[in-house]
Amino acid sequence: MKRVVEALEMVTEWIMALMLAVMVALVFGNVVLRYGFNSGIVAAEELARLMFVWLVFLGATLALRRHQHLGLDILQARLPARVRRACAVISHLLMIYALWLFIQGSWFQLLIGMETRSTVLSFPMAFYAAAGFFPAIAMALTILANLWKILSGDATAHIPGNGDPHGVTAPQGGAIAEH
């Protein structure tokens, strides 16, 4: 299972890199054409916007998976282990609830977007809602998997305040040290 997840992460990174390259080419090419030749690529803005939305949500999914979202572990690091674990369970439940609301809203927007078309390329506007819907499901599954690890006492569970799983921690003096 771990290999499958790592392969999916790698594919997602490559997709994101490709989207970023296409976005840069479209926007830069459109600027050059507009100011240099009084012309332009009509669909460039629409495609770049769609790719940017997908890029943001895919990046958020990867950041969640790698525990790279901004967090305030300073207070939790000073709590006893049992309280830290309880805080992690509560925060995971709150995140799952928020993602459930997001998934519901994205689903409704996806259904509405099936009937609405984009201005230039005439693709279904559901493509925008799908950018939130599918990554939100992946984020919810990631959080549920970690919540299961926390509740079952798995040593590989990520609990904020327990230190960085990548081996970098901030000791009492505040400086970052490698293990």
UniProtKB/TrEMBL annotation:
Keyword field: Cell inner membrane, Cell membrane, Membrane, Plasmid, Transmembrane, Transmembrane helix, Transport
Gene Ontology, cellular component aspect: plasma membrane
Any GO MF annotation of the entry: transmembrane transporter activity
Subunit structure: The complex comprises the extracytoplasmic solute receptor protein and the two transmembrane proteins.
Listed GO biological process terms: C4-dicarboxylate transport
Segment forming the signal sequence: none
Keyword Cell membrane: yes
Record bears the keyword Transport: yes
Location of the protein in the cell: Cell inner membrane
InterPro entries to which the protein is assigned, alphabetical: DctQ, TRAP_DctQ
Entry similarity comment: Belongs to the TRAP transporter small permease family.
Natural source organism: Azospirillum brasilense
Pfam families named in the record: DctQ
Name of the protein: TRAP transporter small permease protein
Domain Tripartite ATP-independent periplasmic transporters DctQ component: residue ranges: 23-151
Primary role: Part of the tripartite ATP-independent periplasmic (TRAP) transport system.
Membrane topology of this protein: Multi-pass membrane protein
Highest taxon of the lineage: Bacteria
Transmembrane segments: 12-35, 47-65, 86-107, 127-148
